């Protein structure tokens, strides 16, 4: 059994996280329940930051908060001296409400609204990552009306396809994101912003995909961006002060996954950028990265209570849990794979094979197919590992199922970070039918 971060098996044979018994957490807070190991998140964040410091390279490590957003995780990011990547007005509003320093917030998105961009200006965030010509027009309007400057990066698609799932590759040419680096779009965007009185162009941004286990893609993307920066420097004297190479660093979900340590990705990026700066006689820009999944993914564990069971003779054995695709859509959406353990029997041998089904009214609501587990009984606590990224953040009220609670654990202590939704929460925005049917 592969354990993550502070996970251990205690003398009672129970899984513990952050020094806290997972079964006690399930009993105290109910299930489904997301449990985050804060020590592991801190270790991951420090690993990225310290690598840049060790190599004496100026940098910002921005938590890509679409992976998991809430007030408490933003406050933890601030404690660890991270910057913050937000992709919507809602994430930006949450960050501001959390007290996160606005100057360390970067705003992404391929269709930011006028109102969202106004909020970015009003809260004086640190940078907007510009995605398209429409957005350039909006930024010019808002900045001129407000007579207010804004730092920007141009997001480009470098034409690099990472070895990852088709649904989560974003750096290739056929993408809804960014200006194409190879067909003149990036050059046109550069021309539109380079001399604007209020838009301060820092440099370029790219993101080549997610759950990447190799450094080659990042190095190739950095090479392509540096070539373009070198061309702009030679022709226009443009000085790039920031190069943002995105995120997408992989984590281990199952034994098939072979992730690299954070510093390996960082070191390879830096080598490539340094080599091109020397070759083109350019100053080394700040290097920004945006880890999301690699900060919180394997720090999150989902706890469920086992309910019904069904045997299909000579086919499979089902166990059903009290959550499912409403709190983890990734298996249905991406065919994502996970490993699990019966948390109250964690020291027993895994002798049975089950398909773990959710309670949602969809035949595709399966969290794990053919999971090797300890023999399961109704009332057992099932722990599914590595659900910290894109679990809660993509959760829904499908079938009017309330969203789970979220708990943080560290050094034997635990704290509620997000309350469990109630049925009343679900109907609070519903209005009665009042149309005149006469």
From TrEMBL:
The modification N6-(pyridoxal phosphate)lysine is found at residue 66. It comes from Lysinibacillus antri. GO terms for molecular function: diaminopimelate decarboxylase activity; pyridoxal phosphate binding. Belongs to the Orn/Lys/Arg decarboxylase class-II family. LysA subfamily. It catalyses: meso-2,6-diaminopimelate + H(+) = L-lysine + CO2. Pathway: Amino-acid biosynthesis; L-lysine biosynthesis via DAP pathway; L-lysine from DL-2,6-diaminopimelate: step 1/1. The keyword Lyase applies. InterPro entries: Ala_racemase/Decarboxylase_C, DAP_deCOOHase_LysA, De-COase2_C, De-COase2_CS, De-COase2_N, Orn/DAP/Arg_de-COase, PLP-binding_barrel. Keywords: Amino-acid biosynthesis, Decarboxylase, Lyase, Lysine biosynthesis, Pyridoxal phosphate. Substrate binds at residues 293, 330, 334, 362, 390. The active site is at residue 361. Its cofactor is pyridoxal 5'-phosphate. Homodimer. Specifically catalyzes the decarboxylation of meso-diaminopimelate (meso-DAP) to L-lysine. Coiled coil: none annotated. This is Diaminopimelate decarboxylase. It is an enzyme of class 4 (lyase). Residues 34-388 form the Orn/DAP/Arg decarboxylase 2 C-terminal domain. The gene is lysA. Its EC number is 4.1.1.20.
